[in-house]
């Protein structure tokens, strides 16, 4: 094995661990091409020797085990220069953070700290000074980055971090549910090295000629304090429900067309429906409804035969939008506005901007109300049951769907104090 000290830019084969010089393009032991090694590393191997970041900071944390609101109770920050990694000389600090909203430890048997330590902890903002002069911040995953920013919001502080790299997303070996133990195992770092484990992983990657590139940086997508003032919320919600053509046996050339648009305008301040819109639409591409479609939607052939055109329905709905203040469309799936978008594109109909974004009620349904350990988004029946609103188990007509939809939104606003705002928005595409 070539000694790493004699290599100007060493790289280590991920197959057999043989160390070679930068200019050797194939592993002498197992003949693995160097390009393959660097493709796994998600970087261009010709740039491996270029140092993009000089000072790297790594943030690890432990959170209070509260189901409703997590807070950071232990923060570990490491800081080192990429030119000194061989010397294992880096700054590392561990802070016990005093919780702001939940002073008592939740599930203390799973914590590595005691309640006494938490009571004597330092303020969260006292850790900011350690982040000065860092060119790059690394978190283990996006959830940890979000937890850090949520702590800034809770403490009413401006977040000192604008961009970061999620190590899980750029780690050489990708797999679902990649954990810290997986990273340690792949890099053959002893498992007992759990203290500052993320730092050990990053340093080991750098020793193997891995380079963190600027294209790996992620923008912070969750609200930070200076953006909070821009979140104005909405005055009205459009509870939208679409019905579209369908067949029992899916055909690739079958285009779904909207055959009914139902929209209820919910005034948040008055807590009631102030306007309703319902129209049947005559399909053009598949004018005859299948028996399966009639059974699924409850819409009869004569109803769509007497319906208006898709263009007329969009124009009438858009006219209602003009009369409202700030509003957003609420749906019960991601498919409704996507199908609307596709049909508009096929028929060359321009949609107003308000029909290109929405809030999926199933996605933002509070975790505190959901069935424990369920990974799927809840159905309408499950949401009603969780809120204690399930009354129409066997009656699924259109009127009942509207009542259920309105009841859910009303319950979440009044009982759960849920605020519908821009953070919840999803896009079909951006104009």
TrEMBL record:
Source domain of life: Eukaryota
Domain Exonuclease: residue ranges: 236-418
Record-linked Pfam families: RNase_T
GO molecular function: 3'-5'-RNA exonuclease activity
Keywords recorded for this protein, A-Z: Exonuclease, Hydrolase, Nuclease
Keyword check for Hydrolase: yes
Name by which UniProt lists this protein: Exonuclease domain-containing protein
Organism of origin: Paramecium primaurelia
Lineage of the species this protein comes from: Eukaryota, Sar, Alveolata, Ciliophora, Intramacronucleata
